[in-house]
């Protein structure tokens, strides 16, 4: 398996902000096509003088053919190297009419693999090659202006030398538990040499060579296969000898299934589809934790994988996986797949990785070396009394699809887990690595917006790009240029196509392809929008970046990252890539990539803006982008020179989502997290969105799992211990609250803030942030009295039921008011006070019954309110005759429902009519669509966020102008003047309620932004705006395009069904929404290939 160019576990206003493309006009750049240019340069040579019909110089030699001479000392060949060798032979051949194209060859191999036979691939050909000094001897003439090569002037001697290539390979895997054979046949014998009638084959099984007739098979044993992907330096597994030509070669056999299989495989076909996408699917590999024999989930832990490229196998050695990718679901939903299904013969995974990597070390993912040990520790804890976690590995079918679409498979999986857990099972933990952290973040936040039950208590983001990922821009352009020099999974073309997949476009901060801007902007708009992080759980983040913000050691912006060397043949030309923001090269400033065509003298350069953020060398999770080109499986070291062995993939400030570091396009990449956010175990919402973080003292490889110990595989060692930190978070998240409480229990730790269902029986006291009592749950390290003056506790939308029975007590906050608490009951939840049950809300504390939740105060029970109780709009309340609310009366918002939620099935209750609504003071905050500083002439959207029924009565502007206003007055567009523009919103409360005043915000209008003149900056089109949001009877969509061409607006429901479509040129398109039920909807605004996407809620 070769190293993936895009590592598996990956991976709202202006293009300048999201930084995919330069912000000023730059010269048009064309990376060209190195393979086509090489062939064209040599097409002027006389074919009659090429005796073998194969001119090696016509191909770009990514894998060195001179190593495969037919001797037994030839290197062990992986399938990747053989595929590259075949492609070079194919490109070198003057007449290809009798040769299989790479696609035809791949199809033939697939057919044989599906029969359970691994074909022996043999490449046997003679070639001509230009003498190194042919030009110096006058045997060829180079026209460096027109980039062509000609024979002569000395035609008395041949300009060529001759050579021989003999190489073998075996694709696929030897199955552990299935019969596998090696097929030897003439249809897989390629080259310009005659095919022999038989070959001598040694399978490395101590039986020596056997003579195998063409067209026959040989049984294979898994004992002769390596368990993990083998490198070219591994011991040979198979040797072939051609007696006819006295030639031999070595190749690798690989073993498929891991030693520890999963217990169950769930096929997922998403029941919801993101607009513009096809239904997503996935497989969830399930392994029960120690002590769980119930067949249901007890301690569920979901691993959400990162970006995965099944369409482009990333590794030709995994060709056998291409046909098994995706067990096709028969219908929407989740079904159980038999583990003995033949498609699982080579391992439990879809695409490039899956359950296999949870069990065994994979040479090509050294950062995951400690993952199998972490899995074992989680499933088989050191304490024999501790139950292990049930691990569920989410493995996408198309792991590079739109992130939101793959998130729909996680939505269904979380619902399935919630519906199939044991009665006393714990809530779910979700760990998302790289792009998996984005999939998980979206799925969890979306479920909360939809009031769906995710029943998740802890979200762990592991080196995930919350503000974008980075692949060296210069190397991206080099990849584009080299895209034709390699044919199969390891080919540069496929790597380029990986960059162009939707998920890659969404996450990369800088992208070589200008068409990626739309997806990137749309995704970043969502990431920066309110509610884009889930709120009903603890959220923590792990970064592999240096916590002190130091640039990668011995690295600097503008340094050379990768180049083709002078050792390479002239057919390479010259190619050089530099770190952002580039360097001066041949008179061109800020050059990130430069190349010279084969046999040519002119340099072509790609430039960027001088202020481009230097992410390539910033602290963060690193990758070996440049080193990948010198892959030992291709044997290419002599052709590339790597100035940098690593570069930054996920910047520190992105993995931790640090907004305090500035905008993405002008961020402080050396932000010192340790100094600026010293309390790593506490939330700091003004600087970052998580409750806690972990980052090491030096930058590590992306998604490097560490346990404080050295590598046992001979890889670089890293001595942080993020594995222990993650395990501690999981242990501390366990509330250990019994389903029936008969003693004291005190909530007050930030590790545990999700309130499950519980019955508080006689003698039971459930306290929230009670002074003097140690908090309950977690580990002994956190069982100390509460330390926070205030504490939030909440239920999820999973129908949590808290029943306070006779002589049971539920206490919110502390009697002296020095420790307060807020408890929120969410949709579908119930607080049920039975006869002689007591709930006390102390001074300074709050009990909120939210939309869709129910409060029942039965006959004989008491609700003592010394603080504040809020019954929100849409909540249900039942106070039976004889039930008592003492102290202060609750605050009732308008729209409160009398009686219990009928879906709860509580039977007959003697409920009194809901009291007349009372009011809390109303107020308004103003939200801007941009940062505090804008260029002169910018138009800024100002939105009024109202609370407790506040309404805007008038907008006023100092040093600016009101351009437009939404019909409800909730949004206004402001044109800014030089200096400071101040915006005022006068507001009043609903009739009969207190609260009125003026909300204020301001904008600084400048001539320069991010160190550049506003006049020189090429600002991207302002994205469309939709308002009001939430909508009721209508929604207006503003034209985001600066031209007068028509644009299209489409409204979709949450199942992806198109409901409305309008086309126009006007500044605002008006959509009537009153006929649609309440829920989440999606709006697409497009013109040509440019599209903006928005989520909008409709509420009536």
TrEMBL record:
Keywords: Signal
Region (Disordered), start-end ranges: 606-626
Keyword presence, tRNA-binding: no
InterPro entries reported for this sequence: AB_hydrolase_fold (IPR029058), Secre_tail (IPR026444)
Pfam families given in the database record: Por_Secre_tail
Signal peptide stretch: 1-19
Record has Oxidoreductase as a keyword: no
SUPFAM superfamilies assigned: alpha/beta-Hydrolases
Secretion system C-terminal sorting domain: residues covered: 1026-1090
UniProt protein name: Secretion system C-terminal sorting domain-containing protein
Organism: Hymenobacter luteus
């Amino acid at each position: 398996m070769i190293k993936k160019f895009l590592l598996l576990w990956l991976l709202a206003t202006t293009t300048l902000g999201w930084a995919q493309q330069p912000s000023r006009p730059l010269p048009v750049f064309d990376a060209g096509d190195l393979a086509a240019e090489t062939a064209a340069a040599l097409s002027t040579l006389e074919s009659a003088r090429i005796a073998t019909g194969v001119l090696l110089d016509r191909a770009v030699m990514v894998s060195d053919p001179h190593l495969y001479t037919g001797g037994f000392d030839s290197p062990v060949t992986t399938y990747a190297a053989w595929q590259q060798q075949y492609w070079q032979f194919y490109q070198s051949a003057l007449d290809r009419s009798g040769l299989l194209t790479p696609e035809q060859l791949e199809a033939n191999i697939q057919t044989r693999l599906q029969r359970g036979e691994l074909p022996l691939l043999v490449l046997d050909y003679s070639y001509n090659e230009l003498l190194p000094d042919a030009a110096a001897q006058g045997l060829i003439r180079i026209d460096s202006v027109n980039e062509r090569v000609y024979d002569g002037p000395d035609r008395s001697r041949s300009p060529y030398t001759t050579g021989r290539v003999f190489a073998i390979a075996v694709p696929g895997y030897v199955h552990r538990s299935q019969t596998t054979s090696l097929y030897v046949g003439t249809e897989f014998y390629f080259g310009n040499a005659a095919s022999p009638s038989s070959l001598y084959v040694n399978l490395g099984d101590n039986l020596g060579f056997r003579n195998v007739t063409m067209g026959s098979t040989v049984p294979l044993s898994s004992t002769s296969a390596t368990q993990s992907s083998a490198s070219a330096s591994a011991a040979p597994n198979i040797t072939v000898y051609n007696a006819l030509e006295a030639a031999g070669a070595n190749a690798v056999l690989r073993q498929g299934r891991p030693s520890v299989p999963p217990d169950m495989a769930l096929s997922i076909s998403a029941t919801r589809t993101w607009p513009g996408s096809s239904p997503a699917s996935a497989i969830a590999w399930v392994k029960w934790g120690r002590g769980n024999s119930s067949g249901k989930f007890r301690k569920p832990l979901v691993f959400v994988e990162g970006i995965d490229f099944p369409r482009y196998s990333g590794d030709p050695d995994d060709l056998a996986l291409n046909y098994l990718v995706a067990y096709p679901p028969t219908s929407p939903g989740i079904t159980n797949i038999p583990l003995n299904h033949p498609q699982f013969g080579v391992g439990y995974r879809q695409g490039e990785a899956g359950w296999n990597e949870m069990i065994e070390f994979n040479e090509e993912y050294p950062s995951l070396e400690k993952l199998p040990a972490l899995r074992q520790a989680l499933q088989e804890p050191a304490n024999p009394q501790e139950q292990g976690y049930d691990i569920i590995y989410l493995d996408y079918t198309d792991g590079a699809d739109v992130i939101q679409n793959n998130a729909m498979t996680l939505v269904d999986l979380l619902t399935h887990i919630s519906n199939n857990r044991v009665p006393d099972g714990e809530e779910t933990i979700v760990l998302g690595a790289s792009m998996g952290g984005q999939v998980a973040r979206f799925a969890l936040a979306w479920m909360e917006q939809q009031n769906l039950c995710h029943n998740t208590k802890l979200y762990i983001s592991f080196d995930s790009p919350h503000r974008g990922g980075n692949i060296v821009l210069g190397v991206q352009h080099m990849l584009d240029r080299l895209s034709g020099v390699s044919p199969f999974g390891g080919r540069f073309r496929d790597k380029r196509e990986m960059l162009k997949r939707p998920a890659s476009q969404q996450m990369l901060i800088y992208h070589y392809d200008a068409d990626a801007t739309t997806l990137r902007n749309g995704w970043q708009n969502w990431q920066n929008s309110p509610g884009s992080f889930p709120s009903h759980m603890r959220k923590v983040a792990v970064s592999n970046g240096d916590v002190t913000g130091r640039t990668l050691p011995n690295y600097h912006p503008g340094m050379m990252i990768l180049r083709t060397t002078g050792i390479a043949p002239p057919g390479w030309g010259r190619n050089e890539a530099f770190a952002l923001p580039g360097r001066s090269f041949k008179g061109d400033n800020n050059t990130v990539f430069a190349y010279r065509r084969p046999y040519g003298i002119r340099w072509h350069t790609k430039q960027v803006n001088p202020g481009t953020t230097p992410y390539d060398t910033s602290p963060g999770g690193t990758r070996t982008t440049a080193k990948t080109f010198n892959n030992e499986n291709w044997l290419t070291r002599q052709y590339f020179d790597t100035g940098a062995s690593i570069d930054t993939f996920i910047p520190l400030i992105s993995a931790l989502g640090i907004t305090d570091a500035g905008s993405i396009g002008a961020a402080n990449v050396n932000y010192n997290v340790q100094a600026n956010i010293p309390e790593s175990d506490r939330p700091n919402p003004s600087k970052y969105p998580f409750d806690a973080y972990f980052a090491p003292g030096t930058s590590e490889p992306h998604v490097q799992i560490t346990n404080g110990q050295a590598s046992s595989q001979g890889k670089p060692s890293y001595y942080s211990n993020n594995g222990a930190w993650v395990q501690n978070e999981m242990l501390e998240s366990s509330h250990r609250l019994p389903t029936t409480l008969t003693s004291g229990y005190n909530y007050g730790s930030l590790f545990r803030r999700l309130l499950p269902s519980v019955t508080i029986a006689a003698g039971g006291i459930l306290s929230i942030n009670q002074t003097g009592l140690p908090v309950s749950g977690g580990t002994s390290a956190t069982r100390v009295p509460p330390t926070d003056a205030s504490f939030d506790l909440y239920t999820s939308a999973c129908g949590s039921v808290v029943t306070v029975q006779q002589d049971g007590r539920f206490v919110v906050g502390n009697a002296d008011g020095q420790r307060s608490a807020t408890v929120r009951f969410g949709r579908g939840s119930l607080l049920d006070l039975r006869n002689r049950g007591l709930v006390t809300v102390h001074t300074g504390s709050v009990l909120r019954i939210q939309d869709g939740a129910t409060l029942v105060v039965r006959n004989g029970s008491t609700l003592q309110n010394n603080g504040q109780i809020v019954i929100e709009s849409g909540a249900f309340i039942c106070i039976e005759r004889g039930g008592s609310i003492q102290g202060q009366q609750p605050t009732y918002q308008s729209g409160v429902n009398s009686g219990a939620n009928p879906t709860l099935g509580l039977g007959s209750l003697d409920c009194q009519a809901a009291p007349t609504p009372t009011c809390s003071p109303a107020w308004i905050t103003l939200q801007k669509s941009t940062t505090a500083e804008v260029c002169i002439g910018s138009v800024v959207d100002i939105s009024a966020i109202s609370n407790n029924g506040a309404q805007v009565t008038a907008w006023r502007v100092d040093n600016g102008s009101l351009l437009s206003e939404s019909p409800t007055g909730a949004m206004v567009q402001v044109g800014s003047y030089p200096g400071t523009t101040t915006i005022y919103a006068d507001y009043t409360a609903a009739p009969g309620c207190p609260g009125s005043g003026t909300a204020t915000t301001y904008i600084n209008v400048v001539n320069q932004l991010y160190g550049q003149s506003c006049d020189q900056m090429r600002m991207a089109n302002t994205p469309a705006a939709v308002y009001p949001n939430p909508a009721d009877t209508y929604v207006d969509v503003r034209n985001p395009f600066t031209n007068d061409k028509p644009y299209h607006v489409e409204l979709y429901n949450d199942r992806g069904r198109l409901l409305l479509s309008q086309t126009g040129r006007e500044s605002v398109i008006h959509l009537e929404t009153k006929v649609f039920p309440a829920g989440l909807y999606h709006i697409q605004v497009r013109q040509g290939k440019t599209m903006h996407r928005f989520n909008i809620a409709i509420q009536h």
